Amino acid sequence: MAKIVRIELFMVDLKPKVKRQDAIQSFVSQETPFVRITDSDGVVGTGYSYTIGTGGHSVMALLERTLCPALIGREAMEIERIWRDMLFMTHATTVGAITAIAMAAVDTALWDLKCRKLGLPLHLMAGGAQPEVALYTTEGGWLHIEQAALVEDALRAKAAGFGGCKLKVGRPIHQDVQRIGAVREAVGADFEIFTDANQAFAVDEAIRRARAYEPLDIGWLEEPLPADDIAGHQRLNAHTSVPIGVGESIYSVLHFREYLERHAASVIQVDVGRIGGITPWLKVAHMAECFNIAVSPHFLMELHVSLCAAVPNARWVEYIPQLDDLTSEKMIIADGKARPSDAPGLGIDWDFAAIDRQVVEGSRSTMDQNS
């Protein structure tokens, strides 16, 4: 094995190319912390995570001051052991978004290093369960977009071979029903329509809306309630035939366990950047498999495509392109489905010259065994 001898940190701030607005917020920026880890054999692994415009500098401070200094001299291949040590090192700030996002950047870098060292792509290293995964798009379904444009985007996605689209909900209920109904009428019965409330509703409102959406045959209702309201999700799930999706705002494997044990969700949308990395992502995916529940992760399609291909119960990859300006090659799409890269590593072909041009001023730091 080889020890960690150098760690580089920096952050890029990406602006969305389209306006992204949901029931509670606008997605104005993707702060993207990067971690590059070098071992004593000279192999380098690159990891990353993200925020949606707040907290990025706090993530970088946690990485620079607490997590990464403790990694110098550690065995780079001991990923599980390092992840557990980081968890207990930050026990006073766990469970929480800042800590999980920081840990994810480190953990994905270690997995990238391991895959590159062994010459294998992530989708095989982590399981190799399926060669491709169905794709749905969210980019044309934001809440501010008018009905006619929703229909046009859904028809384009269907023509491109995508299996579905996602529409944001949270307008007055009759408007949501009209918008979903217009898309359903246009695309027909053989195209999935998913909906996403972004935690906007109370339980009574969520039950009412789910019942109104049922005749439109939607694939799921995502984040209908605040993510920490497990009892509310349990009640809602018992009152509707619409599958209930949760996960993008859950930061602990144990919280997913509670949802599964209490039958409070039907779709698990675990996000590698928010759960703390690949190590806990795989635990959640396999735990969901034991409950015969599908995984359809949130965002980060360039990384999730490989993880979805690694496990047997992954059903969908969410199409929201965000890394095109930082990569030399885009995610592989064939016949409307996402396919993982066979290149060693995470499967992301970083353009480091492009990244260097967009690094946030003052965010760079480096530590090594001589520091």
TrEMBL record:
<dbReference type="Pfam" id="PF13378">
    <property type="entry name" value="MR_MLE_C"/>
</dbReference>
<protein>
    <submittedName>
        <fullName>Mandelate racemase/muconate lactonizing enzyme family protein</fullName>
    </submittedName>
</protein>
<dbReference type="InterPro" id="IPR036849">
    <property type="entry name" value="Enolase-like_C_sf"/>
</dbReference>
<dbReference type="InterPro" id="IPR046945">
    <property type="entry name" value="RHMD-like"/>
</dbReference>
<keyword id="KW-0460">Magnesium</keyword>
<keyword id="KW-0479">Metal-binding</keyword>
<dbReference type="Pfam" id="PF02746">
    <property type="entry name" value="MR_MLE_N"/>
</dbReference>
<dbReference type="InterPro" id="IPR029065">
    <property type="entry name" value="Enolase_C-like"/>
</dbReference>
<dbReference type="InterPro" id="IPR013341">
    <property type="entry name" value="Mandelate_racemase_N_dom"/>
</dbReference>
<dbReference type="InterPro" id="IPR029017">
    <property type="entry name" value="Enolase-like_N"/>
</dbReference>
<dbReference type="InterPro" id="IPR013342">
    <property type="entry name" value="Mandelate_racemase_C"/>
</dbReference>
<feature type="domain" description="Mandelate racemase/muconate lactonizing enzyme C-terminal">
    <location>
        <begin position="147"/>
        <end position="243"/>
    </location>
</feature>
